[in-house]
Structure prediction request, 177 residues.
Amino acid sequence: MKLLFLLFICGVLSLQVQAQNARFDIPELTLAKQVKADGLVQPYLDDFIAQCKKYGIEYHDNLFELKEIAVVDTLTVSPKGGTLGMLVRNEDRKVEKIIFSWMTLLDKEILKVVAFHEFGHYFLGYKHTCNDCNTIMAAVNSSYFDIIKDWDYHVEKLFLESPVYLNNQNTTALKVD
Ligand SMILES: [Zn+2]
Prediction:
């Protein structure tokens, strides 16, 4: 029991170190002029932007308004869980950063779901769709496994049911009328 406990702590410590390294090892700007995106999150941001293009979602302005996308060790963690990601707003309530807890690094699939969740809030105009119902925009995800298992389905649903996409469809319909 004691041994298991120690192993767990070591695991956590090494992850923390990894997270800190990640934070200070921010690569040069690759995607957008002012957005500093953590290298660990960058692939998911690239994926998300590719989906925005596919569904005709305008993302440039939002992307350029972001100062940073980072993995941090400052989000609260408790035995019951913790905040895995959040949008950080300035005093004018404008989002200027998207941050992810180092806890998401426990499994890169978790980081992927949490990244798409936060980007869903920011780029697609989402509020939470439910408390805990195995969708990307649920407030809580007690199991990420189901989402990962049907990832393509969940991503399609995320975009097709998003406020921004639906609003675009309405606007288009009005123009046609
Ligand atoms: Zn959320």
Notes: Residues 1-33 have pLDDT under 50 and may be disordered.
